[in-house]
Design brief:
Elements: H1 5-13, H2 17-38, H3 44-57, H4 67-78
Length: 79
Amino acid sequence: MQANDAALLLAWRAGDADAGEALFSRHMPSIARFFRNKVDGDIEELIQRTFLACLEGHERFSGEGSFRGYLFGIARTIL
């Protein structure tokens, strides 16, 4: 059974690096698609900046919305 985002986030915050990797892997394609639809050219740096900001600020995510929405909020800010 695959864990939901909330469970993965809790595990990641508790130090489970595999949970963080699973969380990022789950959402990487949609973030990449977001940037491909908005930007001509290389999007790799934008993707990296989005996930780095998430990594650095994941404690600010309250869990009231979806983790996916949180990531897209970061992506919109980076754009």
